[in-house]
Structure formats: C-alpha cells, structure tokens
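Hi there,

I know you've been waiting on this one. I reran it after we fixed the sequence typo, so this is the corrected version. Both the input and the resulting structure follow.
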Amino acid sequence: MPSILLGNERNISSSKQEVQLTLSATNLPNTKGLLKGVSDPYAIVTILADKSGSQSILLGRTETVKNNLSPTWTKAFVFDYELSKRMYINIGIFGEIRKAKRNKPVGSATFEIGDILGRPENCRGKRLKQSDGVVYAMIKPAPKSPAGTLYLELRGLNLRNVDRGPLGLGKSDPFFEVSHRDEQPGGKVIWTVVSRSKHIKSNLNPTWKPVEVTLNRLCDNKQNQPIRIAVLDWEKNGNHKFIGAVEVTLDVLVRAVNHDMSVKDGKTHLDVDNTFTLTHFGSKVSRESGSLVVTNAVINGAAQDPQ
C-alpha cells in the first residue's frame, strides 16, 4: 500500500494553481441504528497517487455535523492543481460513534478534479459506494491574497418560536449559520455555509458562543460583498427548522456592534434600534422572526479589500 503524505507536506510549484474544495452530502444512511438517534457524519479527503509507487496525500477531515443525514460541512480544503494533469481525490464519509474505538464507515466516492471544474457551478455529485447517499464536491479558485479573520459574537432577541411541541410548552433550540454568496452565470445565487454556532436549548433570547471565520471564506475579502446569517431551530433528527435570516455586508456588520448595552434590575438592556431584523421568507408571505444583536465583531489580521 503506498504511503500517505499529510497535506501540509505537499510541494508547491509555480506551475500549479491553488483551488479550494468544499463538501456536502444528502440522503446518508443512519449508522446509529434503530432508536439510537441520527448519525454524526464527517468526511476525510485524500488526493490519490497518480502513478505506481507515488504517494497519496491526506488533506484532512471535515468537522463532525451532529444529527444530520444531509450535512453541509464548513471546512474547506486548499491544494495545488495542474490544469494539464488528471488528479483524483477520494472522499470517505464516516459516522462518528462516541466512546467507540472505531467510527463507522458510511461510504466513499472518487472524483477527477477536471471533471468537477467542467460541470455547472463547478460542482459534481456522486453516489457513494456501499450506500445510496450522495456526496457533492465544489471547487473554486483559492484566494490569492492573505486576509484577516472575523471574530463574531451574536445574540438573538425575541426569536419566533417554531418548536412549541405537542402541548404547546416547548421552545426553539436556536443556532446560526453564516454563509458566503456565490453568483453563478445567469444570476443564480448560491449560499455556502462557512461557519456554524452551537445550538442553545429552549431559549428565544440566546447568547451564542463566538465564532471565527476567515474573510476569504466569508466574503472573498471584500467588505461590501453581502453575507447571510440564518437562524434555525436545532432538531435531534437533523431536520432543523428555519426561523429567519438577514443579508448584510461585513462593513455594516462591524459598524452595528451594540455598544449601548446596560444592566438594570439584573437584566441586560440593548439599543433595539441598532439590531438586524430576521425575516422568514414563506411561499406566499414573508414575516419578521425576531432580531439579531451584534455584541462583538472584530477583524484580526490583514486588512480587507473595500471593493
């Protein structure tokens, strides 16, 4: 069996272009079994050896997405690709099993990079071996210049309750996702999740833990490019319920930090005029679903492109 190099050990050649790979999947089988919950899938990406005796390159693994049979992973893989050369990658998907010595294989698929780049939206899906699940690989040019990192802290305010339960006494378990905007030929817009918070149980006014995301992944290092923040209600079966979303630019987000917070009678009071309204877009009508409060938004590292 050929040996495997780690991704950070690859040789960089000026004749190669850096590309960025992101992954998602649908219809994965449940590896936890009957009455034991829903799978926690992750993916491992390997560049396969191109000839006998050469070495495969292990790029790494995604994060684990809890309780989800159709995950969108936020981890991005950057590697070198030569246009005139065929390159194959293998994507293996596993179900994470807590307190087990080995995680459970779900299936795998092999892609040729040039074949992905020749598809609409530079994305291709393949059915996994050993299962009926489908994994999608999307490739785009990697950012050419280094960028900073956004440190973001958010709070929800009076979120719409979409999980009242059978007795009407339940509350939503909200989390948020931050997405990058890709505009395809013909004007079609695709939102790709680049960061995701942890959910908070039974709370319509949550204070989430901070998240961090590079500006290249978030907005192509452009402060005036729209980004999307969506709030969802976490469900154990992975069918999370949409609460609402807002589109905003990085420049506006950073300037919207709520500095007018005060404590009175043991409660935190906010400047509600300096918040973002979440909107739920229905098939017939749209409605407000609460507000987002930016309690901290700091850019660390390189300066962003103002364009």
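Quick highlight: The mean pLDDT is 85.

Best,
R. S.
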